[in-house]
């Protein structure tokens, strides 16, 4: 398991240019790793992420479209990770930080977490993939409500809307995420990666196209060493030992 921790607690982990670049590099490198089977994204100091750091000096000097492409590179690198990803959210997750959490495959939050698509209240439109993520998570009309008003959502409301998978007491957050991460890390890496991509891409496909891709993926699973190990383990009535081959 790899844990990626945003470590600017004095700024509620608001992301500056240096951190955007570090995140992109980390996600790209991790995508090539055979050792890290699950990625947990979290923040230091009791908060997840307060979004882009608007006080960052680079914001005043960089060409803004170039800067936005740097932010988008992080969103794409996160989305393209073959490994399952878990956002571990405590405290605030707003703006780009909110969409960083929602861009993960699973979101586990403490009961004191708070989420907001705060962009409109700062005179901004959505970024970090929010325009793509939100309609897929909650439907178009609810996505517009969240984006237009930028209201702060408590953890329970975010869970009710389907934006969060699980809410736990703050003192249990680490254990809850560790338990899910351990289960994912023990799973079949190839099958999980293929399942992730099938689900992520399905919205843009017809049923025949989805079925064709499912068939190709299943053939790969069956022919893989992990697929053979799963059958052996089933016949021998034991837990399989997946190696990612």
Secondary-structure blueprint of this entry?
Elements: E1 2-6, H1 17-31, E2 39-43, H2 58-61, H3 64-79, E3 85-89, E4 92-94, H4 96-102, E5 106-110, E6 114-116, H5 130-138, H6 140-149, E7 153-154, H7 155-160, E8 166-168, H8 173-185, H9 189-201, H10 207-223, H11 225-235
Helix pairs in contact: 1-3, 5-6, 9-10
Q: How would you sum up this structure, described in words?
A:
With 245 residues, the protein is α/β, with parallel strands linked by helices. It is built from eleven helices and eight strands. α1 (17-31) packs parallel to α3 (64-79), α5 packs across α6 and α9 (189-201) runs antiparallel to α10. The protein is globular.
Number of helices: 11
Report on the biggest sheet. Answer: 5 strands, parallel
Mean pLDDT: 93
From the coordinates shown, what is the CATH architecture of the largest domain? Alpha-Beta Complex
Order of helices and strands: EHEHHEEHEEHHEHEHHHH
Strand content: 5-15%
What is the CATH topology of the largest domain?
Answer: 2-enoyl-CoA Hydratase, Chain A, domain 1
Quick synopsis:
This protein folds into 2 domains: 2-185, 2-enoyl-CoA Hydratase, Chain A, domain 1; 189-235, Lyase 2-enoyl-coa Hydratase, Chain  A, domain 2. Helices cover 49% and strands 13% of the residues.
